[in-house]
């Protein structure tokens, strides 16, 4: 089936991809189109902008995590009911998971999905030199570059360069003038959360108006329609023999979640029960817990004041309820968490250690994760792909799994008791569909024995 689609890429980070992509998405939505959006790579925050603020369905696409068939399946499943899909690239167009590789790059995604590419060239301080940049990217390697948008360029300059672009055989879609008053602010994990930007909706609608004036959206939609049909084989997902209820933390603290992780859990037999460690007094009646990433360091006072929730999670995990926690969720399980001002806040005390701000990225990037010992949540030899991205670090990150980086470096990470698998890595479940099923089987075992235990525990 045909899924009209385009991928917006740039020569480098900082070129304005997110700003221009959000403006295009808002303009398309304002036209009444049903729009799906995607982000290349493992980033959580841009899809949150797309879905929560603009109102588009938004997912991640990452060829490091999955093969081409699965990548196409994940794309098509979200794109299916929509008129057009807009994919936002990551880093520079050819930049992949290592310095000399294009694997997992925006270019890689575009080729695997047969998606036409619009190159966004930042023309600040340049005019004809922008054409040299465009020509270099066109000729560097195999690519699907079909159009170009110039960022921070005037209409006068664009009109003079337009014939030169057409002579290269690609579509000059337009320009975006300098819009400093519409720039989205930054934070240590990329863009700030949607709720933290004042009058964001008004900004995006104003930006959509700028886009309508400077970019030929009709030509962009027409270009998206040239994408060919996609063929693929859907990944096999085996359900468990039963049903389990999974408590899934979701609020302003715990907000970094791959939606595809939730989808595969449901396909495997999970009923997802959302709860808020910030505002709910008690853990719901569940058979397992997943604490996703987020910003516990920004909400330390609110989290530690909810003592009944801290106690419930400690007692549940200490009592053998299966638990997966990653990054921010892992931080929440500690005795103490440092906030940005240096104040310490109590956590769940499942991990007898402290999390502090290191002021720099720790163990950043992709890795393949495998158990280092028998008796864990999954058998030795199981591989799950994921990544790490965090400025805070623990005095006890665990050593029950091994992380293998693309360059060959290895390090120990994560705590794995057989029912509790927690650490800084963000795991992508579709990289190994057996992984979520094995977690749910642990939850099924816990459900069978739940209620027969009379043990009691107390958080220190």
Structure commentary:
With 460 residues, this protein is of the alpha/beta class. The chain is built from 13 helices and 26 strands. The chain has helices at residues 17-30, 45-54, 68-79, 106-112, 129-140, 155-167, 200-214, 217-224, 259-268, 300-305, 307-318, 328-332, 434-449; strands at 5-9, 35-40, 57-61, 84-88, 117-122, 145-151, 171-176, 186-187, 190-191, 244-249, 254-256, 270-275, 288-291, 293-294, 323-326, 334-338, 344-346, 351-357, 365-371, 384-388, 392-394, 401-404, 410-413, 415-416, 420-423, 426-427. It has a seven-stranded parallel β-sheet, with helices on both faces. Strands 12-10-13-15-25-24 form a six-stranded mixed β-sheet. It has a five-stranded antiparallel β-sheet with strand order 23-22-19-20-26, with no helix packed on it. Strand 2, helix 2 (45-54) and strand 3 (57-61) form a beta-alpha-beta unit. Residues 187-191 and 452-456 have low confidence and may be disordered.
